[in-house]
Amino acid sequence: MAGDNFFIVIEGLDGAGKTGIARQLFSTLSQTHQDHVALTYEPHDPSAAGMYIRNALTKRIKVSPLSLALAFALNRADHIDQMIEPFYSAGSEPRIVICDRYVMSSLVYQSTGGLSMEDIEGLNRWARQPDLTLFLNVSPHQCYARLRNRPADRELFEKNLVERADKYQAAVQLLRGKGENIVEIDANPGFNDVFAAVLSAIQDQAPDWLRIQQPLLLDVEESNADDDFDISEAELYAWVNALSHDQLEEPAPQHLNWLFKAYLLDLGFAWGERLTWTPAPAHILFFQLPTGLEQRGIALVSKGKQQTDIATKIVQDLRDRAIGRDSAYPGYDFIILLDKAQFEPLVRFDRDNSLQHGLAPQVQIVTQQTLFDWLRNR
Q1: How confident is the model at residue 358 (pLDDT cuts 50, 70, 90)?
Q2: How far is CA 215 from the centre of its chain?
Q3: 160: alpha, beta or left, given left = phi > 0 and alpha = psi -120 to 50?
Q4: How confident is the model at residue 356 (pLDDT cuts 50, 70, 90)?
């Protein structure tokens, strides 16, 4: 059924709005295609070399342009092999993958230090070609204005946007010459206008089986309810025991959080205080081993679906915070992330000790399906 699947890539400058558009598109297409839609991103942190790339982008390690280009090519190969292709082949119905960045970004960002776009294209020539690439074309001035609203931890590539804009145009021409279907979207207006243009482009280019239900876009901000774990254990278990099937058809974000907490408590974890140093909803977890030793970890909630990259950022924050601290600084053995996807992703994180501060905490992903399976079997 591979020919019946559809692969959509979202590209554009830093600040073009790729991630917001990709997440809204995933939400919209999920209304009509349910769990036959997947949202992913590159660089893909759980895939091979993911932590290495993220450390390079955040300037935690210094790497050569060639090393970084090879790392991106390896990361993409593993991402395709371990996530994209298995998702496409998981059933007989056609499926949709939406990817935030892909080969075009590599042509733009890795063609430096003596490497040409043709060199980078050669490294990635085997990569699956998108069925539709949506290039969000936005002025560098607009991008800079949007980037000023981001947190201070800028990544390596969020600079020299005028030069990057020119390189994107060159990359568009190169990939079109290779037969790639690229549609340019004016991304200078507000979010709703840009998203409407994205949906229009998909309707023009997509196969007949791909159906779109027009969303009502009132507010693209996340709900504050994603942060709500304020419920006692007695109240929580009473609520879980009274759950009906209808309540699980389209659970509210707050209810998924409560299920996540109940699931962890049922597995024997003790729920601790809220962590205030990360913007993501996160709480300390404790687990008593049979030997009597206690492990310390973090329960972390993504604010949307398919956001496993935030676990990687938390790992890096933990390691950076440990630098220069004394032995009393609390370490963390594990992270359990609630990713509000409707299917079970294949997730593997590199265990990276390149900064010589010990192994990164183990990361486990819990999905909506994980929670529903637990409810059925408890």
Answers
A1: very low
A2: 22
A3: left
A4: very low
Three-state secondary structure call for residue 278: coil
279: preceding bond cis by omega (within 30 degrees): no
**Is the separation of the CB atoms in 117 and 126 below 8 Å?**
no
Question: Which contacts (CB < 8 Å, 24+ apart) does range 120-125 have?
Answer: 120/69, 121/174, 121/178, 123/69, 123/70, 123/73, 124/73, 124/76
Judged against a pLDDT cut of 50, whether residue 220 lies above it is answered with no
pLDDT at 181: 97
pTM for the full model?
0.64
Rounded to 5 degrees, what are φ and ψ at 366? -115, 130
Query: Contact 32/213 with Cβ under 8 angstroms?
Result: yes
113: alpha, beta or left? (left if phi > 0; alpha if psi -120 to 50): left
**Same structural domain for residues 8 and 156?**
yes
Domain stops at, among 176, 205, 234: 205
Q: Residues 18, 165: contact at Cβ < 8 Å? A: no
Q: What is the pLDDT of residue 78?
A: 95
Percentage of the chain with pLDDT > 70?
74
- Is the model's pLDDT at 304 over the cut of 70? no
Asked whether residue 200 falls in the same domain as residue 235, the answer is no
Q: What is the pLDDT of residue 329?
A: 42
132 and 11 share a domain? yes
Q: Is residue 115 classed exposed, middle or buried when 0-12, 13-18 and 19+ CB atoms within 10 A define those classes?
A: middle
Map residue 356 onto helix, strand or coil: coil
> Is pLDDT of 250 > 80?
no
pLDDT of residue 89: 92
Sheet bearing 334-339, strands edge to edge:
270-274, 282-288, 294-301, 334-339, 362-367
Is residue 25 a contact partner of residue 115, using CB atoms and an 8 Å limit? Answer: no
How many distinct structural domains can be found in the chain? 2
CATH number at 46 reads 3.40.50.300
- CB within 8 Å of 38: residues ≥ 6 apart: 26, 83, 84, 87, 95, 96, 97, 98, 306, 341, 343, 345
**What domain range is 62 assigned to?**
2-205
CB contact at 8 A, 345 and 306: yes
Give me the residues paired with residue 8 across strands. Answer: 98, 132
State the average pLDDT over residues 337-344.
64
